[in-house]
Amino acid sequence: MAASKLLVSDMASVVDHVPSNYVRPVSDRPNMSDVESSGDSIPLIDLHDLHGPNRSDIINQFAHACSSYGFFQIKNHGVPEETIKKMMNAAREFFRQSESERVKHYSADTKKTTRLSTSFNVSKEKVSNWRDFLRLHCYPIEDFINEWPSTPISFREVTAEYATSVRALVLTLLEAISESLGLAKDRVSNTIGKHGQHMAINYYPRCPQPELTYGLPGHKDANLITVLLQDEVSGLQVFKDGKWIAFNPVPNTFIVNLGDQMQVISNDKYKSVLHRAVVNTDKERISIPTFYCPSEDAVISPAQELINEEEDSPAIYRNFTYAEYFEKFWDTAFDTESCIDSFKASTA
Ligand code: OGA
Ligand code: NI
């Protein structure tokens, strides 16, 4: 029986309609005819010159992309093409395994550091999403690698290589973003405790009625910064100036988006960005976001240097631990776009 399947990937292939628990209310559907195509409108930052004499130019590009968009694409990012290819292949092979092999990793417990699940948070949400995902913690790698799936056979090695390479890229991005805020280059990195890195492998099966449901509904990422790798199938959309813009995948570029912690640390100079994933009838889609985040015990607050009570820029957010924030994030189950408002400083 299709309805008894844990994962949407094992249900999707045997249904010709979207089951009712995936159907969104009419007021909350993708409405593809309203979506704009990304074209040239999304900033593309070439990191090639970041460490040369033109660094200040590139830092200005970061300032512009982060303040007016909150998302951008990057090329010449230093993650080898081969590493990316192997990661995407390992992800695809993982989801091609038999149902019995995959469900060994299934858990609905949002606190587990390695787990396969479906939708977003099945224990809390009212409408399901057309997505399965494998979620892994991957920094420090040695704390988690033994929990990761051991099949396909290369999975651990390939994922460790990819995660290490993307982490080096993120540290470079954090320095550039810190400088673009007028802060010392290690400032943002020093604000997030011992650091954390999570990864998701999102698998969006083909969907018979993509106009009725989402792969992921509109949301903002809870973490600091997200570096997204996607295959050649479109699906990601970002909200900008009142419109949804579709990202058409460009080989060997990553999409970077700012998350809620960057908004807090920058005291609203930079905003985390609303985005969503839609599905389609023709092709399955895989995306692999790296969610770079504070360690759980890190106390997050707006950077002191960006606060000036006299000049009318008081701290917009109170102090909190990332553990507190992250728990709230899963609890909201995407009923709201973000839980950031409940971390605002009281204005009393
Ligand atoms: C996410 C996300 C977008 C995508 O996993 O948080 O926004 O294109 N994914 O899969
Ligand atoms: Ni997201």
CATH A-level architecture: Sandwich
Termini gap: 56 Å
Number of strands: 15
The CATH topology name reads: Jelly Rolls
- List low-confidence stretches: none
CATH homologous superfamily descriptor: B-lactam Antibiotic, Isopenicillin N Synthase, Chain
Which small-molecule species are bound to the chains here? N-oxalylglycine, nickel (II) ion
Radius of gyration: 20 Å
Q: What composes the largest sheet?
A: 8 strands, mixed
> What count of domains describes the coordinates?
1
**CATH class type:** Mainly Beta
User: Widest sheet: strand order?
Assistant: 2-3-11-8-13-6-5-4
Helix content: 25-40%
Question: What's the oligomerization state?
Answer: single chain
- Tell me the fraction of residues in β-strands, as a range: 15-25%
Morphology call:
globular
Q: Can you give the mean pLDDT?
A: 94
Return the string of H and E elements.
HEEHEHHEEHHHEEEEEEHEEEEH
Discrete helix count: 9
Structural class, from secondary structure content?
Answer: alpha+beta
Summary tags:
Jelly Rolls, binds N-oxalylglycine, alpha+beta, binds nickel (II) ion
Describe the structure.
It holds the Pfam family DIOX_N. This protein is of the alpha+beta class and 348 residues long. The chain has one domain: B-lactam Antibiotic, Isopenicillin N Synthase, Chain (Jelly Rolls). The chain is 26% helix and 21% strand. It has helices at 8-12, 55-68, 81-96, 99-103, 141-144, 155-180, 187-190, 260-265, 322-332; strands at 36-37, 44-46, 71-75, 114-118, 132-139, 196-204, 216-219, 225-230, 236-240, 243-246, 254-258, 275-277, 285-293, 299-300, 320-321. The protein has an eight-stranded mixed sheet. A hairpin with a 2-residue loop joins strand 9 and strand 10 (243-246). Helix 2 packs across helix 6 (155-180) and helix 3 crosses helix 6. The longest helix has 26 residues, at 155-180. It is globular. The site of nickel (II) ion has 3 residues, from loops.
